[in-house]
Protein backbone atom coordinates (compact mmCIF):
# COMPACT_ATOMS: atom_id res chain seq x y z
CA UNK A 1 0.00 0.00 0.00
CA UNK A 2 2.73 2.39 0.96
CA UNK A 3 4.79 2.15 -2.25
CA UNK A 4 1.60 2.29 -4.32
CA UNK A 5 0.64 5.49 -2.50
CA UNK A 6 4.03 7.11 -3.16
CA UNK A 7 4.20 6.24 -6.86
CA UNK A 8 0.61 7.32 -7.44
CA UNK A 9 1.12 10.44 -5.31
CA UNK A 10 4.10 11.54 -7.43
CA UNK A 11 2.14 10.58 -10.55
CA UNK A 12 -0.80 12.72 -9.37
CA UNK A 13 1.49 15.70 -8.90
CA UNK A 14 3.01 15.55 -12.36
CA UNK A 15 1.49 18.24 -14.60
CA UNK A 16 0.79 16.13 -17.67
CA UNK A 17 -1.62 13.74 -15.98
CA UNK A 18 -2.84 11.54 -18.79
CA UNK A 19 -6.58 12.33 -19.03
CA UNK A 20 -7.11 8.84 -20.42
CA UNK A 21 -6.38 7.45 -16.95
CA UNK A 22 -8.65 9.99 -15.30
CA UNK A 23 -11.56 7.86 -16.37
CA UNK A 24 -10.08 4.77 -14.76
CA UNK A 25 -11.88 3.74 -11.54
CA UNK A 26 -8.61 3.37 -9.67
CA UNK A 27 -7.60 6.93 -10.59
CA UNK A 28 -11.04 8.32 -9.66
CA UNK A 29 -10.99 6.49 -6.34
CA UNK A 30 -7.51 7.73 -5.70
CA UNK A 31 -8.48 11.29 -6.55
CA UNK A 32 -11.35 11.02 -4.08
CA UNK A 33 -8.92 9.64 -1.53
CA UNK A 34 -6.54 12.58 -2.01
CA UNK A 35 -9.40 15.05 -1.70
CA UNK A 36 -10.80 13.38 1.39
CA UNK A 37 -7.33 13.14 2.93
CA UNK A 38 -6.95 16.87 2.40
CA UNK A 39 -10.31 18.14 3.57
CA UNK A 40 -11.84 14.95 4.87
CA UNK A 41 -10.24 14.32 8.20
CA UNK A 42 -9.52 17.94 9.10
CA UNK A 43 -12.92 19.11 7.96
CA UNK A 44 -14.39 15.97 9.45
CA UNK A 45 -13.60 17.02 12.98
CA UNK A 46 -16.38 19.49 13.66
CA UNK A 47 -16.04 21.36 16.92
CA UNK A 48 -19.24 21.65 18.90
CA UNK A 49 -19.40 25.03 20.63
CA UNK A 50 -21.71 24.55 23.53
CA UNK A 51 -23.51 27.82 24.26
CA UNK A 52 -26.29 26.47 26.46
CA UNK A 53 -25.20 24.01 29.12
CA UNK A 54 -28.21 21.74 29.43
CA UNK A 55 -27.62 18.45 31.25
CA UNK A 56 -27.10 16.48 28.07
CA UNK A 57 -24.60 19.04 26.69
CA UNK A 58 -22.69 18.94 29.96
CA UNK A 59 -22.35 15.21 29.39
CA UNK A 60 -20.55 15.66 26.07
CA UNK A 61 -18.83 18.96 26.88
CA UNK A 62 -15.65 19.15 24.75
CA UNK A 63 -16.32 15.76 23.24
CA UNK A 64 -16.13 16.20 19.49
CA UNK A 65 -18.59 14.38 17.22
CA UNK A 66 -16.52 13.38 14.22
CA UNK A 67 -17.64 12.91 10.63
CA UNK A 68 -16.88 9.19 10.86
CA UNK A 69 -17.81 8.58 7.22
CA UNK A 70 -15.01 10.87 5.99
CA UNK A 71 -12.57 9.02 8.24
CA UNK A 72 -13.71 5.68 6.79
CA UNK A 73 -13.32 6.97 3.22
CA UNK A 74 -9.88 8.34 4.02
CA UNK A 75 -8.47 5.12 5.49
CA UNK A 76 -10.19 2.37 3.47
CA UNK A 77 -7.69 1.25 0.80
CA UNK A 78 -8.73 1.29 -2.85
CA UNK A 79 -8.70 -2.07 -4.60
CA UNK A 80 -5.46 -2.41 -6.50
CA UNK A 81 -4.57 -5.37 -8.71
CA UNK A 82 -0.91 -5.06 -7.81
CA UNK A 83 -1.58 -6.04 -4.18
CA UNK A 84 -0.98 -9.59 -3.01
CA UNK A 85 -2.83 -11.63 -0.35
CA UNK A 86 -2.25 -10.27 3.14
CA UNK A 87 -1.45 -6.68 2.17
CA UNK A 88 -4.96 -5.50 3.04
CA UNK A 89 -4.70 -6.84 6.55
CA UNK A 90 -3.69 -9.92 8.52
CA UNK A 91 -5.47 -10.03 11.90
CA UNK A 92 -5.22 -12.50 14.82
CA UNK A 93 -7.79 -12.94 17.60
CA UNK A 94 -6.44 -14.42 20.84
CA UNK A 95 -9.44 -15.86 22.64
CA UNK A 96 -11.81 -18.82 22.75
CA UNK A 97 -11.91 -21.31 25.59
CA UNK A 98 -14.05 -24.18 26.84
CA UNK A 99 -16.72 -21.74 28.02
CA UNK A 100 -16.87 -19.23 25.12
CA UNK A 101 -16.47 -20.00 21.42
CA UNK A 102 -18.83 -17.40 19.88
CA UNK A 103 -16.92 -14.23 20.77
CA UNK A 104 -13.62 -15.08 18.99
CA UNK A 105 -15.57 -16.19 15.92
CA UNK A 106 -17.56 -12.92 15.88
CA UNK A 107 -14.38 -10.82 16.15
CA UNK A 108 -12.40 -12.80 13.56
CA UNK A 109 -15.12 -13.13 10.89
CA UNK A 110 -15.97 -9.43 11.26
CA UNK A 111 -12.36 -8.53 10.42
CA UNK A 112 -12.64 -10.51 7.16
CA UNK A 113 -16.02 -9.03 6.26
CA UNK A 114 -14.75 -5.48 6.80
CA UNK A 115 -11.95 -6.26 4.33
CA UNK A 116 -8.94 -7.95 5.94
CA UNK A 117 -7.34 -10.64 3.75
CA UNK A 118 -6.57 -13.09 6.56
CA UNK A 119 -8.01 -13.72 10.01
CA UNK A 120 -6.53 -16.11 12.58
CA UNK A 121 -7.83 -17.35 15.94
CA UNK A 122 -5.50 -18.61 18.70
CA UNK A 123 -7.68 -20.54 21.18
CA UNK A 124 -7.66 -23.56 23.50
CA UNK A 125 -7.70 -27.11 22.19
CA UNK A 126 -11.33 -27.56 23.31
CA UNK A 127 -12.54 -24.46 21.51
CA UNK A 128 -10.66 -25.03 18.21
CA UNK A 129 -12.85 -27.69 16.53
CA UNK A 130 -15.94 -25.71 17.49
CA UNK A 131 -14.66 -22.45 15.95
CA UNK A 132 -13.27 -24.29 12.92
CA UNK A 133 -16.73 -25.75 12.41
CA UNK A 134 -18.25 -22.27 12.18
CA UNK A 135 -16.23 -21.28 9.12
CA UNK A 136 -13.41 -22.46 6.84
CA UNK A 137 -12.53 -18.78 6.30
CA UNK A 138 -10.73 -18.61 9.67
CA UNK A 139 -7.29 -20.07 10.40
CA UNK A 140 -7.72 -21.57 13.89
CA UNK A 141 -4.70 -22.54 16.02
CA UNK A 142 -5.54 -24.84 19.00
CA UNK A 143 -2.58 -23.86 21.15
CA UNK A 144 -3.80 -22.14 24.36
CA UNK A 145 -4.20 -24.19 27.54
CA UNK A 146 -6.38 -23.82 30.64
CA UNK A 147 -5.30 -24.98 34.14
CA UNK A 148 -7.61 -27.99 34.24
CA UNK A 149 -5.66 -29.66 31.46
CA UNK A 150 -2.13 -28.92 32.75
CA UNK A 151 -0.31 -30.66 35.65
CA UNK A 152 1.40 -28.31 38.08
CA UNK A 153 4.87 -29.67 37.26
CA UNK A 154 4.31 -29.20 33.52
CA UNK A 155 3.19 -25.58 33.66
CA UNK A 156 6.58 -24.02 32.89
CA UNK A 157 7.30 -26.17 29.88
CA UNK A 158 3.75 -25.81 28.52
CA UNK A 159 3.70 -22.03 28.78
CA UNK A 160 7.04 -21.75 26.95
CA UNK A 161 5.67 -24.06 24.24
CA UNK A 162 2.53 -21.92 23.87
CA UNK A 163 4.69 -18.81 23.57
CA UNK A 164 6.98 -20.44 20.99
CA UNK A 165 3.95 -21.43 18.90
CA UNK A 166 2.53 -17.90 18.89
CA UNK A 167 5.98 -16.36 18.26
CA UNK A 168 6.20 -18.30 14.98
CA UNK A 169 3.30 -16.25 13.67
CA UNK A 170 3.16 -13.00 15.60
CA UNK A 171 5.39 -10.84 13.31
CA UNK A 172 3.03 -11.43 10.37
CA UNK A 173 0.03 -9.83 12.04
CA UNK A 174 -0.96 -6.21 11.49
CA UNK A 175 -3.03 -6.22 14.68
CA UNK A 176 -3.97 -8.58 17.52
CA UNK A 177 -7.36 -8.70 19.23
CA UNK A 178 -6.85 -10.08 22.72
CA UNK A 179 -9.77 -11.13 24.91
CA UNK A 180 -12.97 -12.10 23.09
CA UNK A 181 -14.10 -15.29 24.83
CA UNK A 182 -10.71 -15.63 26.54
CA UNK A 183 -12.17 -16.57 29.92
CA UNK A 184 -10.38 -15.95 33.22
CA UNK A 185 -8.28 -19.04 33.82
CA UNK A 186 -5.11 -17.91 35.67
CA UNK A 187 -2.71 -20.16 33.73
CA UNK A 188 -4.20 -19.13 30.40
CA UNK A 189 -4.01 -15.43 31.36
CA UNK A 190 -0.34 -15.79 32.40
CA UNK A 191 0.47 -17.12 28.91
CA UNK A 192 -1.52 -14.31 27.31
CA UNK A 193 0.42 -11.75 29.40
CA UNK A 194 3.65 -13.07 27.87
CA UNK A 195 2.12 -12.92 24.37
CA UNK A 196 1.21 -9.27 25.00
CA UNK A 197 4.78 -8.48 26.09
CA UNK A 198 6.15 -10.05 22.89
CA UNK A 199 3.64 -8.19 20.71
CA UNK A 200 4.57 -4.93 22.41
CA UNK A 201 8.29 -5.57 21.82
CA UNK A 202 7.50 -6.07 18.12
CA UNK A 203 5.38 -2.89 18.00
CA UNK A 204 2.27 -4.81 16.96
CA UNK A 205 -1.01 -2.99 17.72
CA UNK A 206 -3.26 -4.74 20.26
CA UNK A 207 -7.02 -4.29 20.66
CA UNK A 208 -7.93 -5.47 24.17
CA UNK A 209 -11.54 -6.53 24.79
CA UNK A 210 -13.65 -8.87 26.89
CA UNK A 211 -11.64 -10.88 29.41
CA UNK A 212 -8.47 -9.27 28.03
CA UNK A 213 -9.71 -6.17 29.88
CA UNK A 214 -10.12 -8.26 33.03
CA UNK A 215 -6.44 -9.23 32.67
CA UNK A 216 -5.21 -5.71 31.88
CA UNK A 217 -7.26 -4.04 34.63
CA UNK A 218 -5.38 -6.21 37.11
CA UNK A 219 -2.00 -5.79 35.35
CA UNK A 220 -1.93 -2.24 33.96
CA UNK A 221 1.82 -2.37 33.29
CA UNK A 222 1.03 -4.67 30.35
CA UNK A 223 -0.34 -1.67 28.41
CA UNK A 224 0.65 1.54 30.22
CA UNK A 225 2.82 3.68 27.95
CA UNK A 226 2.01 1.59 24.85
CA UNK A 227 0.55 3.92 22.19
CA UNK A 228 -0.52 0.98 20.00
CA UNK A 229 -2.83 -0.46 22.67
CA UNK A 230 -6.60 0.07 22.28
CA UNK A 231 -8.98 -0.78 25.15
CA UNK A 232 -12.67 -1.26 24.25
CA UNK A 233 -14.51 -1.49 27.60
CA UNK A 234 -18.27 -1.99 27.89
CA UNK A 235 -20.30 -0.56 30.79
CA UNK A 236 -19.05 -3.11 33.38
CA UNK A 237 -15.46 -3.17 32.16
CA UNK A 238 -15.26 0.65 32.14
CA UNK A 239 -16.61 0.83 35.68
CA UNK A 240 -13.92 -1.57 36.89
CA UNK A 241 -11.18 0.34 35.04
CA UNK A 242 -12.26 3.67 36.59
CA UNK A 243 -12.43 2.11 40.07
CA UNK A 244 -8.99 0.59 39.67
CA UNK A 245 -7.14 3.43 37.93
CA UNK A 246 -8.88 6.57 39.21
CA UNK A 247 -10.07 5.08 42.54
CA UNK A 248 -13.46 6.64 41.86
CA UNK A 249 -16.87 5.84 40.43
CA UNK A 250 -18.05 6.45 36.85
CA UNK A 251 -19.20 10.06 36.55
CA UNK A 252 -21.79 10.49 33.80
CA UNK A 253 -21.97 14.25 34.37
CA UNK A 254 -18.48 14.67 32.98
CA UNK A 255 -17.86 11.50 30.99
CA UNK A 256 -15.48 13.29 28.60
CA UNK A 257 -13.17 14.62 31.31
CA UNK A 258 -13.14 11.33 33.18
CA UNK A 259 -12.26 9.37 30.01
CA UNK A 260 -9.47 11.83 29.22
CA UNK A 261 -8.06 11.41 32.76
CA UNK A 262 -8.32 7.62 32.55
CA UNK A 263 -6.42 7.45 29.24
CA UNK A 264 -3.82 9.91 30.56
CA UNK A 265 -3.43 8.04 33.86
CA UNK A 266 -2.88 4.66 32.18
CA UNK A 267 -0.53 6.44 29.78
CA UNK A 268 -0.65 6.70 26.00
CA UNK A 269 -3.32 4.06 25.35
CA UNK A 270 -6.48 4.68 23.36
CA UNK A 271 -9.78 3.89 25.06
CA UNK A 272 -13.10 3.34 23.26
CA UNK A 273 -15.81 3.66 25.93
CA UNK A 274 -18.80 1.79 24.50
CA UNK A 275 -22.27 3.14 25.20
CA UNK A 276 -25.15 5.25 23.85
CA UNK A 277 -22.38 7.27 22.21
CA UNK A 278 -19.01 5.64 21.76
CA UNK A 279 -16.39 7.97 23.32
CA UNK A 280 -12.79 7.66 22.10
CA UNK A 281 -9.71 9.16 23.72
CA UNK A 282 -5.93 8.72 23.49
CA UNK A 283 -5.35 11.04 26.45
CA UNK A 284 -5.00 14.06 24.15
CA UNK A 285 -8.51 14.65 22.79
CA UNK A 286 -11.94 13.02 23.02
CA UNK A 287 -13.98 12.12 19.93
CA UNK A 288 -17.50 10.75 19.92
CA UNK A 289 -19.48 8.58 17.51
CA UNK A 290 -23.21 8.82 18.07
CA UNK A 291 -24.45 7.46 14.73
CA UNK A 292 -27.77 5.77 15.54
CA UNK A 293 -27.14 2.03 15.95
CA UNK A 294 -29.86 -0.12 17.42
CA UNK A 295 -31.76 -0.36 20.70
CA UNK A 296 -31.05 -4.11 20.74
CA UNK A 297 -28.35 -5.07 23.25
CA UNK A 298 -27.69 -8.71 22.30
CA UNK A 299 -24.35 -10.23 23.31
CA UNK A 300 -21.57 -10.25 20.69
CA UNK A 301 -21.76 -6.69 19.35
CA UNK A 302 -18.62 -5.71 21.22
CA UNK A 303 -16.83 -8.65 19.63
CA UNK A 304 -17.77 -7.39 16.15
CA UNK A 305 -16.43 -3.98 17.17
CA UNK A 306 -13.05 -5.32 18.35
CA UNK A 307 -12.46 -7.18 15.06
CA UNK A 308 -13.52 -4.13 13.02
CA UNK A 309 -11.30 -1.71 14.94
CA UNK A 310 -8.33 -4.04 14.34
CA UNK A 311 -8.73 -3.85 10.54
CA UNK A 312 -9.35 -0.10 10.37
CA UNK A 313 -6.43 0.53 12.74
CA UNK A 314 -4.13 -1.50 10.47
CA UNK A 315 -5.30 0.46 7.39
CA UNK A 316 -4.95 3.80 9.18
CA UNK A 317 -1.44 2.85 10.30
CA UNK A 318 -0.38 2.20 6.67
CA UNK A 319 -1.38 5.80 5.91
CA UNK A 320 -0.08 7.56 9.02
CA UNK A 321 3.25 5.76 8.54
CA UNK A 322 3.54 7.54 5.16
CA UNK A 323 5.18 11.00 5.66
CA UNK A 324 3.56 12.26 2.44
CA UNK A 325 0.07 11.41 3.68
CA UNK A 326 -2.17 14.17 5.07
CA UNK A 327 -2.99 11.76 7.88
CA UNK A 328 0.56 11.50 9.20
CA UNK A 329 -0.32 13.77 12.13
CA UNK A 330 -3.30 11.63 13.16
CA UNK A 331 -3.26 8.79 15.70
CA UNK A 332 -4.09 5.60 13.75
CA UNK A 333 -5.60 4.01 16.88
CA UNK A 334 -8.13 6.86 17.19
CA UNK A 335 -8.98 6.70 13.46
CA UNK A 336 -9.45 2.92 13.73
CA UNK A 337 -11.82 3.31 16.69
CA UNK A 338 -13.90 5.98 14.95
CA UNK A 339 -14.26 3.85 11.80
CA UNK A 340 -14.93 0.60 13.66
CA UNK A 341 -17.56 2.17 15.89
CA UNK A 342 -19.39 3.84 12.99
CA UNK A 343 -19.49 0.72 10.80
CA UNK A 344 -20.72 -1.48 13.67
CA UNK A 345 -23.49 1.01 14.50
CA UNK A 346 -24.56 1.29 10.86
CA UNK A 347 -24.62 -2.52 10.50
CA UNK A 348 -26.60 -2.85 13.76
CA UNK A 349 -29.10 -0.29 12.48
CA UNK A 350 -29.53 -2.15 9.16
CA UNK A 351 -29.92 -5.50 10.93
CA UNK A 352 -32.42 -4.08 13.43
CA UNK A 353 -34.59 -2.60 10.67
CA UNK A 354 -34.86 -6.14 9.26
CA UNK A 355 -35.06 -8.27 12.38
CA UNK A 356 -36.19 -5.91 15.17
CA UNK A 357 -36.34 -7.58 18.58
CA UNK A 358 -35.01 -10.88 17.23
CA UNK A 359 -31.80 -9.28 15.89
CA UNK A 360 -28.76 -11.34 16.86
CA UNK A 361 -25.02 -10.75 16.30
CA UNK A 362 -24.97 -12.98 13.20
CA UNK A 363 -27.53 -10.69 11.55
CA UNK A 364 -25.32 -7.66 12.23
CA UNK A 365 -22.24 -9.43 10.83
CA UNK A 366 -24.18 -10.06 7.60
CA UNK A 367 -24.74 -6.29 7.30
CA UNK A 368 -21.08 -5.27 7.71
CA UNK A 369 -20.37 -5.47 3.96
CA UNK A 370 -23.31 -3.25 3.04
CA UNK A 371 -22.39 -0.74 5.75
CA UNK A 372 -18.88 -0.33 4.36
CA UNK A 373 -20.15 -0.25 0.76
CA UNK A 374 -22.70 2.48 1.60
CA UNK A 375 -19.94 4.72 2.95
CA UNK A 376 -17.06 3.77 0.70
CA UNK A 377 -18.12 2.04 -2.53
CA UNK A 378 -15.58 -0.44 -3.89
CA UNK A 379 -14.13 0.96 -7.13
N1 LIG B 1 -21.36 -15.80 22.38
C1 LIG B 1 -20.23 -15.65 23.07
O1 LIG B 1 -19.35 -16.52 23.12
C2 LIG B 1 -20.01 -14.36 23.79
C3 LIG B 1 -18.98 -14.32 24.70
N2 LIG B 1 -18.66 -13.17 25.35
C4 LIG B 1 -17.48 -13.17 26.19
O2 LIG B 1 -17.90 -13.34 27.54
C5 LIG B 1 -16.85 -12.89 28.39
C6 LIG B 1 -17.49 -12.00 29.42
O3 LIG B 1 -18.05 -10.92 28.69
P1 LIG B 1 -19.18 -10.01 29.36
O4 LIG B 1 -19.52 -8.91 28.41
O5 LIG B 1 -20.28 -10.87 29.87
O6 LIG B 1 -18.34 -9.46 30.60
P2 LIG B 1 -18.81 -8.38 31.65
O7 LIG B 1 -17.55 -7.87 32.25
O8 LIG B 1 -19.73 -7.41 31.00
O9 LIG B 1 -19.68 -9.18 32.71
C7 LIG B 1 -19.42 -10.52 33.04
C8 LIG B 1 -19.97 -10.77 34.45
O10 LIG B 1 -18.84 -10.94 35.29
C9 LIG B 1 -18.74 -9.86 36.20
N3 LIG B 1 -17.33 -9.45 36.20
C10 LIG B 1 -16.58 -9.21 35.12
N4 LIG B 1 -15.34 -8.85 35.49
C11 LIG B 1 -15.33 -8.88 36.85
C12 LIG B 1 -14.34 -8.61 37.84
N5 LIG B 1 -13.09 -8.24 37.49
N6 LIG B 1 -14.66 -8.72 39.13
C13 LIG B 1 -15.91 -9.09 39.47
N7 LIG B 1 -16.91 -9.36 38.60
C14 LIG B 1 -16.60 -9.26 37.30
C15 LIG B 1 -19.65 -8.77 35.63
O11 LIG B 1 -20.07 -7.90 36.64
C16 LIG B 1 -20.76 -9.59 35.01
O12 LIG B 1 -21.62 -10.05 36.02
C17 LIG B 1 -15.87 -12.09 27.50
O13 LIG B 1 -14.71 -12.84 27.20
C18 LIG B 1 -16.68 -11.89 26.23
O14 LIG B 1 -15.86 -11.75 25.08
C19 LIG B 1 -19.40 -11.93 25.12
O15 LIG B 1 -18.67 -11.20 24.17
C20 LIG B 1 -20.80 -12.17 24.60
C21 LIG B 1 -20.87 -13.18 23.49
N1 LIG C 1 -26.97 2.20 25.20
C1 LIG C 1 -26.56 2.06 23.93
N2 LIG C 1 -27.19 2.69 22.90
C2 LIG C 1 -26.77 2.56 21.63
N3 LIG C 1 -25.71 1.80 21.27
C3 LIG C 1 -25.06 1.16 22.25
C4 LIG C 1 -25.43 1.25 23.62
N4 LIG C 1 -24.54 0.51 24.36
C5 LIG C 1 -23.68 -0.02 23.47
N5 LIG C 1 -23.99 0.37 22.22
C6 LIG C 1 -23.31 0.00 20.98
O1 LIG C 1 -23.13 -1.41 20.97
C7 LIG C 1 -21.75 -1.73 20.76
C8 LIG C 1 -21.38 -2.88 21.67
O2 LIG C 1 -21.41 -2.39 22.99
P1 LIG C 1 -21.65 -3.38 24.23
O3 LIG C 1 -21.67 -2.52 25.45
O4 LIG C 1 -22.78 -4.29 23.94
O5 LIG C 1 -20.27 -4.25 24.20
P2 LIG C 1 -20.03 -5.63 24.98
O6 LIG C 1 -20.84 -5.72 26.21
O7 LIG C 1 -18.55 -5.76 25.09
O8 LIG C 1 -20.55 -6.67 23.91
P3 LIG C 1 -20.19 -8.22 23.91
O9 LIG C 1 -21.45 -8.92 24.27
O10 LIG C 1 -19.74 -8.51 22.52
O11 LIG C 1 -19.09 -8.43 24.92
C9 LIG C 1 -20.97 -0.47 21.10
O12 LIG C 1 -19.87 -0.31 20.20
C10 LIG C 1 -21.95 0.65 20.91
O13 LIG C 1 -21.81 1.23 19.63
MG1 LIG D 1 -17.53 -7.43 25.39
UniProtKB/TrEMBL annotation:
NCBIfam families: yjeF_cterm. Its EC number is 4.2.1.93. This is ATP-dependent (S)-NAD(P)H-hydrate dehydratase. It comes from the Eukaryota. Signal peptide: none annotated. PROSITE patterns: YJEF_C_3. The lineage of its organism: Eukaryota, Viridiplantae, Streptophyta, Embryophyta, Tracheophyta. It catalyses: (6S)-NADHX + ATP = ADP + phosphate + NADH + H(+); (6S)-NADPHX + ATP = ADP + phosphate + NADPH + H(+). Pfam families: Carb_kinase.
Amino acid sequence: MKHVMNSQLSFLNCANTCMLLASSPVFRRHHLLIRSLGVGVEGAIHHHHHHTYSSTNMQDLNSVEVDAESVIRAITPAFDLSKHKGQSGNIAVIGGCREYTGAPYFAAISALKIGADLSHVFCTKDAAPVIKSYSPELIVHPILEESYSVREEDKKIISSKVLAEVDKWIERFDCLVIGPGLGRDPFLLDCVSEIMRHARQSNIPIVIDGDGLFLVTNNLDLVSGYALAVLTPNFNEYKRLVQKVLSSEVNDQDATQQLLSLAKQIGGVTILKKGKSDLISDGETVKSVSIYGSPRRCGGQGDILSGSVAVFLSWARQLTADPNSNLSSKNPTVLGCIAGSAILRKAASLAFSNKKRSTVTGDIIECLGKSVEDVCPAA
